[in-house]
Design a protein that fits this description.
Layout (H helix, E strand, L loop, with lengths): L10 H14 L3 E7 L8 E8 L6 H8 L4 H10 L3 H18 L4 H10 L40
Antiparallel strand pairs: 1-2
Helix pairs in contact: 1-2, 3-4, 4-5
């Protein structure tokens, strides 16, 4: 079995680091008091010290101390705590899936690169709810004229 330079002492340590990553990307802010005006009372403004960032696989890998995505994916497949990395991956994928309801274009691209497919599989069973509409056109009046001489007035 391959040994890793970034082994995590315990599963709890890795789980804690993954949770810290997701907290980190939420950004940091502080509240500043906005002075009261004649018409409005004093309010609080959120001022970002560090802007929120979207969850990414590369971001998670860097945060955990991996040197490349290949190392991350290798540990995810063969490492001691691979289930935790797979769960971290699932959390990122879930965030992209949720974005399908907001701004779908980028999310669709990202999900396709994660193996999602927008086409039905060729070996999948046929959809029983597929209703086919058959349209048949029949002539009910006189035959149409093929030239001017056939037209009667």
């Amino acid at each position: 079995m391959k040994t890793y330079s970034y082994t995590f002492k315990t599963a709890n340590e890795l789980a804690r680091l993954i949770d810290e990553y997701f907290l980190y990307i939420e950004g940091e802010y502080h509240l500043e008091q906005k002075p009261a005006t004649d018409k409005k009372e004093q309010t609080e403004n959120k001022v970002w010290d560090r802007e929120p960032a979207p969850p990414t696989f590369c971001g998670l890998a860097l945060f955990l101390g991996f040197n490349s995505m290949q190392e991350f994916e290798d540990y995810e497949q063969n490492g001691k705590h691979q289930k935790l990395l797979k769960r971290g991956r699932l959390r990122i994928e879930a965030s992209y899936e949720a974005k399908l309801f907001e701004k779908p274009t980028g999310a669709i691209f990202a999900l396709k690169s994660m193996g999602w497919n927008d086409k039905s599989e060729p070996n999948s069973p046929p959809d029983k709810s597929n209703n086919t509409l058959k349209v048949e056109i029949t002539n009910t009046g006189p035959d149409t004229a093929r030239n001017e001489k056939e037209v009667k007035i």
